[in-house]
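My current task is to audit a protein record that another person submitted. My question to you is simply how this chain folds and whether the tokens agree. This is what I was given:
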Amino acid sequence: MNEKVIDLSIQGMTCASCVGRIERALKKSDSIKAASVNLATEKAHVTFDQDKINSDKIIALIHDSGYEAQEIKKETPVIQVSLQSFKIKVICSFVLTLPLLMSMLIGIELKPMTQLILASAVQFIFGASFYVSAWKALKARSGNMELLVAIGTSAAYFLSLYQMSKGHGGHALYFESSAAVISFVLLGKFLESKAKRQTTEAIRALENLRPTKARVLENNVEKEIPISDLKINDLVIIRPGERNPIDGIITEGFSQADESLITGESLPISKSPGEKIIAGSINGDGRIQVQVCALGGETVLSRIIRMVEEAQINKAPVQRLVDKISSVFVPVVLLIAVLTVIFVTMSTGNWENAILHAVAVLVIACPCALGLATPTAIMVGTGMAAKSGILIKDAESLELAHSVTLMAFDKTGTLTQGKPAVANILSLKISEDELLKKMASLQNASEHPLAQAVLDEVFKRKIQFENASQVKALAGKGIEGKINDEKYILGSKKLFPIDYSLPQKIKDFILAAEASGETVSVLIQEPNSEILGVISFADQLKPESAEAISHLKKLGIKTVLLTGDNLGSANKVANALGIDFIHAELMPKDKHTIIEDLKKSYTVAMVGDGINDAPALAAAHVGIAMSTGTDVAMHSAGITLMRGNPKLIADAISISKKTYQKIKQNLFWAFFFNVIGIPLAALGYLSPVVAGSAMALSSVFVVSNTLLLKTWRPT
């Protein structure tokens, strides 16, 4: 199968029933493998076999079900449609409805013909969209919110017209009910659209980080060109205070970068030649020259936007229950309305009153709130997470994270820095500083991680070193060279023959270091093979690791360390951090197997950053990858942490808990309005006017409740 995925923008959806109708229409085709429609974003995510069907035919299927659609290109910016015309429509509808309501509330007598004119304008001009959508639903043999509103208001309108034809007037006419329902529903949709717009702020904020132009250096001349004209390896000049347009590597200049809106890192980060910068970050007080290494959809910023959008389009597992309910909701409401007419007429003999009861049932039962309950919470939750440097790739991971009971960690690069640093020094014949000076002199041209660790320590201690001569590598053992015409050898234990008898002091130092999983380097002076000292190197813990583990313990989450390193190294890390369980000396397949076993007893999250972690990340209920690691790890995980800070793990759990809490609250209120409202309407305790306002209120209430998620802050 030649699989392809497209995103579509859909116009005309109003409630959960619309979502179900479009998904059913798409899934009828054998060529479409998966389809997910989101009411809050008004988008569809479709996976299909492009050998059998294309995007035009998919759009045609949506059109046949009564909606309009168009493909969203990956680099298409978010377009904000003005609500001004909608606002004018609502105001005009209420201006015409207000006299009818005043007539009912304070007894101002309006002539029947005046009522008819006002109500007809509201019904068939401002309410025309309800009829159009209802007709499309009927043609598709389905139902939606508009169908309920159209039937309900038409019943009230034509009942009034019938009464008017019989010569009745005043309170025998119900024009105010039909007009008020349409006006209140329109007001509810306007407020809902306005509130929904706030749920997409995260995407808009990220989109706004994209500059449209760049300043390119050509033949030592700066020239401003559109971003679309840039090519890989172009040299871009970024002045102080400007927003960086590309992903690249600094070739000249020193500055700081504010990456807070991308990674959540609150403090500016120092940048120097050879270091990477990210599109969308703000340059500090230095002028820098950057070589382009990623453009368009391949930049970190574009990938973040794409990941957030995909998470917002995808459905959480809890939404499946809502979809099942929505698929039968409208037919059940129509049946309840018919039964209401029959029973009220039989019990009271007043069929006009029975119709009004049925109208109230139809109006209050509109499933808008039900359709918005889950997707709006997902949108705000993923958006707030993205602002804090937590990228959630799918809604399922967001929903599951709150229930995690065990957190599995890779060690290197996840809980540790991922690079060696000087741990301990044993100097025999010279001072520690002199020992470091000679080691740095031998290694100052080397790119070996241990050499870099020595140089880092030398720079930290502000030791001046010299340049060694005649430096050459000793394959698999170390290096040798001359400093001031004296020959030195630096390397591992392999420098010595197997039967070589090391001084006891050195032997004890090496045994202790190796037991802790540390690496050892020895400095020897020739011609007498005199040992001057020995240094051990360890991968240091990240400063935030202990706090991260402590926070997880407070949440009642058990921890386990899965590492390929030796048991001594694993024990040292686990003891320092208070990790509950240890599995050491593992191959990638071993990590995968252990995760599968743990899943039988726990809800498992796996945190890692390397290629060797990818199988375990994919196997866990929730995979969490560090963005400081490999792309393979990030593709295998449902959540990516944009900073290598383990404390973000607890924040990911926190936003999951808050989001799931909002989903449950929203579903409760959506069902509450219907479960309480429908019986009250059927029994005549709610007039159509009150039912219309209550229905509008339910949608606005659900979205407003979701927006309270925006008060969430990372720990």
